[in-house]
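Render this sequence as a predicted structure.
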Amino acid sequence: MGDAAHCHSPAGGQGMNLGLQDADNLAWKLSDVLNGYAVHPDELLDSYHAERYSHANATIKTTGSATQTGLSEGYIVKTIRETALQAAFIIPQIREYAFKNTMQLYVTIDANESKILGTSDKGLIKPGYFLPDTEPLRQRKFGKRLGIISRLNLRETLIQNEKFAVIFIGTCYSGASPNKDLMAAFWKYARSYPVKRIVVESSWHVHFNHYPDFVLQQEEHDAQSSFYSEERLDSTLSLTSRSGLLSYFPKYLSGPTPSAVLFVRPDLYVAQSKIIYNEGDLKTAMEYLNVIYVNKE
């Protein structure tokens, strides 16, 4: 798809990367429109061009320039080329940047170009950024036969997920109390939309074996892959830290501990991230779903 849709130099082999990201961006939007989920079908489909054209155009220009530089026989150009290559091999930071840039690992979606992105509170993951990886989370088990406890990082929890994911991060220190009422309100509010709900708590506040009271019987199958716990909140790779929530925790447990809600698209780009202190904050944050989806109620 990438080589067919984008006519550019093969420098860096980036056609396949473009094609994969194009397909991932477009597939979920087409699916939502065809299934009747999209509240504004035309706007959702138009966002494909708005979000992907600039990246494809930039790649075409970059690969074209790289090919011209690589084939040029001029003395000045050859000197610059050889110096740049030597620096890339010798200096680890340059080598890593060049590799990740070629692999398109720095791609973001410009919130000014896309009309379907929300907003984020200061210090949280910005809309348009790819979902960061995290340390493993413990998957909660329900029922009499618990079996092996799975440990998955945040991206792994969303493998094969075809829905918009809404993640409630209700972690807090062992000396603080999680807001269970807010967690229940989140679960119930998101019930009206065709989204994947995920709840992450601190491991010392989790009780296994039984479903939370707010989970309906018909939701128990989905709930099997919806509840997780985190053990190390202050690790640099913890979800609490990488989401930006940790910076909002009160010092010395002197105030209320906030929660956070992440809105993650099926292509794993963050659409919105919000700090939640009360049900009013939650309701305001969840209204973002009305921009994308039809409310089933």
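Summary. The beta strands are 137-139, 151-152, 164-169, 195-202, 227-230, 259-264, 270-276. The two ends are 38 Å apart (CA to CA).
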